[in-house]
Amino acid sequence: MARTALRLSENVSGPFFVDESCIDCAVCRHLDPAVFARSPRGLSFVARQPAAPEERTRALMALVACPTSSIGTDPKMDASAGVAAFPEPLGEGVYSCGFTAESSFGAWSYLIARADGNVLVDSPRAAEPLLSRLSELGGVRHMFLTHRDDVADHAALQRRFGCERVLHERDVTPVTRDVERKWAGDDPVPLAADLLAIPVPGHTAGSAVLLYRETVLFTGDHLMADEDDGLLHAARDVCWYSWEEQTRSMERLLDVRFEWVLPGHGGGYRAASAAAMRREIERVVAEMRRS
Ligand code: SF4
Questions:
Q1: Which is the closest atom of ligand 1 to the Cα of 26?
Q2: Of 44, 108, 226, 228, which residue has the fewest beta carbons closer than 10 angstroms?
């Protein structure tokens, strides 16, 4: 719970505040850039207090999504509107789960609602209000883990929903040794007619992206939009395995049709068409080769 005694001096006066426990995961800034901003010392702060009820709900969504409970209100405010807003529908039957976990540094997770069984992409925090809503939406049949870092509360989710967890074998660690499906190799693997797992080694050896309906690409930590310029980038400073491999993996995405990137961290990016997305990926590849 955020503590008023640790309230950052950068916060504007008013009920919402961020305290010193912020880890700069950027979740709040992506959820509500009208209210939250990044200070020169690299922490989030409340730059403007929300005014209208819908603005307050958005700020409360950031409060419940924050992985470290670093956002608070004084006086204490009922956060139920923020809780009820997750999973947040994004379109194409895809929801953002919010409720991020500190162990995955505030990584996003997503629910794909499908007639053949819902899919979680990466794991959220196992918060009961979210789990109840996931049950109402039909539960979880599969959990696709993009890589070793963002697995959060995967075991608790598996116990609750009995889902099959899917992780590339190169990224299996002691905490994920019990995942139900460990896949292998460097070729794309169809998980269903509308789901294709694509290996993208680089960020980690077993990183993978998930293509849904040739439209949405869930990219984990392989590719994300930057909060400053809004364009897609790969992050060399968090490349744990091989930048050269990651560049080659990015290049192979030029042969994949998709229009919308939903990442583990950072912002999403929706192109006007698959052709426009391909041009954006070409730019990213060129940028990676230069760096
Ligand atoms: S969501 Fe929480 S931890 Fe992340 S940047 Fe915002 S205040 Fe900091």
A1: 5
A2: 228
Task: Quote the strand ranges of 122-259, DSSP E.
Answer: 142-144, 164-168, 181-183, 189-192, 195-199, 208-212, 216-220, 224-225, 232-233
CB of residue 71 inside a 6 A radius of ligand 1: yes
Cβ–Cβ < 8 Å for 39, 51? no
- Whole-number Å distance between alpha carbons of 138 and 135: 5
Give the number of other Cβ atoms within 10 Å of residue 232's Cβ: 24
Q: Distance (Å, rounded) from C-alpha 198 to C-alpha 178? A: 22
For 54-93, what is each residue's pLDDT tens digit? 999 999 999 999 999 999 999 999 999 999 999 999 999 9
Q: Is 99 helix (H, G, I), strand (E, B) or coil?
A: coil
104 lines ligand 1 (CB under 6 A): no
